[in-house]
Write a structure and sequence with these properties.
Low-confidence stretches: 1-5
Structural class: alpha/beta
Strand order of the largest sheet: 3-2-1-4-5-6-7-8
Radius of gyration: 20 Å
Strand content: 5-15%
Helix content: 40-55%
Largest sheet: 8 strands, mixed
Shape: globular
Distance between the termini: 47 Å
Mean pLDDT: 93
Amino acid sequence: MSLTSNSTALRRQRQVLDHLRGKEQPDVDPRATISHIAIYGAGIMGSGIAQVAAQSGYQVTLWDVTQADLDRGILAIRTSLARSARKTNQPADWVQSILSRISSTTDQIAACSSADLVIEAIVENLSIKQQLFSRLDKVAKPTCIFATNTSSLLVADVSAKLGEERKQRMVALHFFNPVAVMKLVEIAYLDGTDPELLALLKAWVHDIGKVPVLCRDTPGFIVNRLLVPYNIEARQLVERGDATIEDVDTAMKLGAGYPMGPFELMDMTGLDTGYHIMKAWYDTAPGLSGDPRFKPSPEMEQMIRDGYLGRKSGRGYYVYDK
């Protein structure tokens, strides 16, 4: 990036931050603008986002390709809510009252017809995401906000096929797994994003019980940009034979004060998630593509092929009871 373009980007960032500092959240009511949320993808992330939105009183439409996908997603939500109800001693009808705010459909167009906010949580494939948003752009309300939950792609790339007006209403809302537990949501924005929209989304994130942080559209946003190199170094320590998986995890928990070690964390988030992030960065990320640090190792690729994806598959760096 040239000095001129970098100065422009920094100036834009200061404008956004100055605006938000001067207009803090008490005078932004997200419910005046957002009442119906369409979520695309009923997997771990999509169902988790649907749960926290419905739990906060929003109407949610959950979409996926097949009814079986939707049934699994709704079951995951029901199971999570039932667990929470037991822990917090909720009334008997609490779970059903939240589920009543979630509808589901395999009709891609109908899902967003009246939505105020669309959140995409489908497969980490740029072309498929672009096709989805391009299709929805033609039928969604002009005021509808588009958001991607991507953890590896740029908002600029995901929104590349949208009209200019919609691009100004396109961000990343990056939730973390498990959504019901993890408090952070990264809001990644483009240089042309309206600061008023960012203020609204910050207020909405607070309203669903999460904590927002802002980041310009950059590979990995904040968390993954720091976390992925850390995980890579941990894997390389083990692959070189310098230390064991167990000792690396123990060292980072007791020596750095982390709540879990890197291998425990990779198992929790899914090895396939980390793999897709690394591959996307190595293949196409500005400033990172071709960097040998981010090329997935043969050992990691073999684990992916073997289906050792972490907790969700019953085996990753550790073995789990399914």
